[in-house]
From TrEMBL:
Keyword Hydrolase: yes
Protein name: Cysteine hydrolase
GO molecular function: hydrolase activity
Entry keywords, A to Z: Hydrolase
Superkingdom per UniProt: Bacteria
Natural source organism: Pseudomonas typographi
Domain Isochorismatase-like: 8-170
Pfam families noted in UniProt: Isochorismatase
Length: 186
């Protein structure tokens, strides 16, 4: 992986308290939060921009329904006062949030995306970023997902859902690498 620009942005998606709710089921990658913290620390040390994305759901049954504790950022990943926070209502962090404009105004062209859920908000945001011409990297071990039942009723383990989502992204939208490879470029 090539060296990251001095203004490459770390985009942390939906790392809120609600993502730990038991109703979401079994997840993969139990070390994801520790890996996100490693990247966040490196970004802060190098004074690169950090974008914290908060999901505010339109569904009252969601763990991210506004006004509930689930909407709060996880304490270890909470934004600092100078870090950018944006709120979204759909999986894609570029949709109706001003993210693209914010990045262009700062001449940011490289994005490193981490967070949840791999096959939902992470994938949607990485696809849009790649399609909009940004140089997108997804940290495979700093994202995770949950077991998922498909339309035929088949249960897919989170590990398989995660792997297929990352494979989809690697085809056309993003570079998919491990956190250590990213840290080696800072």
């Amino acid at each position: 992986m090539a060296t990251l620009d001095a203004n490459a942005a770390l985009v942390i998606i939906d790392m809120q308290l609600g993502i730990n709710h038991p109703k979401l089921g079994r997840r993969n990658n139990p070390d994801a939060e520790a890996h996100i913290q490693q990247l966040l620390s490196a970004w802060r040390r190098s004074q690169r921009p950090v974008v914290h994305v908060r999901h505010l759901s339109r569904s009252p049954a969601s763990v991210f329904w506004p006004g509930q504790p689930g909407c709060e950022f996880q304490p270890a990943l909470s934004p600092l006062a100078h870090e950018h926070v944006l709120e979204k209502n759909v999986p894609d962090a570029f949709a109706a949030t001003g993210l693209e404009r914010w990045l262009h105004a700062r001449t940011i062209r490289q994005l490193v995306i981490v967070g949840v859920i791999t096959n939902n908000s992470v994938e949607a945001t990485a696809r849009s970023g790649g399609s909009l011409g940004f140089d997108v990297t997804v940290a495979a071990d700093a994202t995770y997902t949950f077991d998922q039942v498909d339309l035929t009723g088949r249960l897919w383990p989170a590990e398989d859902v995660h792997a297929l989502s990352l494979s989809n992204l690697a085809m056309d939208y993003a570079r998919v690498v491990e956190v250590q490879a990213i840290l080696n470029t800072i």
